[in-house]
Amino acid sequence: MLLKCRFCDMLLENPSKVRRFGGFVMGAAFRVILLALMLPAAGIPFASADELITEYNIPQKESYPTAITASPDSKIWFIEFNANSLVSYDPELGGMKEYAIPSDKSHAMDISSDKDGTLWLAEQDVNVLSKFDPRTKTFKEFLIPFKNANPIVIHATRNGDVWALGWNNDMLIQVRASTEKFEKFIIPTPNSSSFDLTEDHSGNIWFVERNGNKIAMFDPEKKRFREWRVAESLQSILGTLVDSTGMIWYIEMVDNKLVRFDPKTSKHETFEMPKNKGTKELAIDRFDNIWMVQSTDNRLIHFNTKTATFEIFDLKEGESAPNSLAIDHKGRVWFTESSAGKIGMLDTAKLLDQTKNMRVKLKNTEKIFR
Length: 370
Known about the structure:
By secondary structure, the protein is mainly beta. Helix content is 10%, strand content 41%.
């Protein structure tokens, strides 16, 4: 089987970049290197996406599944946007169950599981945050006491508090676990178009400001924001992940770069991503590997942060439109397929088996060209 060389493809598509190698990569020497990379890796087992990915039909095919999460017990939960429902799936027992969201046309945009397995939803159009108890199978909805908060993103933290971002209003909203009381904090940069919430190991809240062109951190103890500008030009940034070492990851959509940011030094390290039409969402696994869904490209992307290498997994159906992704406690990558009316699972155990036997390793393109 021919081992696909995405690095070679990039060089062939961008011959001008070859000149940046200088004297080392010239003439016959370059052709020998290129040929070596393109040769079949004899005897190397390489699982295709078809062998790694399993798809599951959902209760209502036209319901447009969107946000997805995994609870601590590795049950999978996702939103059927058009059906206004929350759906559970147990990977061990099988079978899906639907639970109607109480508010009609809630436009539930995001979902998060807390440490106890309670599900929290951001219901944008009704200005509500709701929680679903999987033990009693009941919802409790909280009308946000701030007019037109329009919650777009939600995140349940390790201490039980819940945070949400308002859409186009610079609101960061906190719900305290102990009292279920709301508090809002106004993001310093006006018209920030903030998105993507996560927390670091100290309990600080991180997000990106897409219009503000910044990454931001909020300290709940000091009730203070801190912002870092990411670039001179507007990048429409996406992401905000925290790895085990405390590094922050995000994507510069315009320049097509994955970025590692060190909050201690304020330094940014960039990695050139494979050519694509736009990433939809990111997640990070227990090995600090980063996963992305690219809806228009109809694929998943895997980035190994140790070796700085990317791998592409094309989905079987040409227009399934992967929308959101989550990683369960077994390391399996789950994602919704909005157009196909399915959810999918990539089995990383099989992926690990195949990568143990790979002999050809390609370096990160950003580091090569610099």
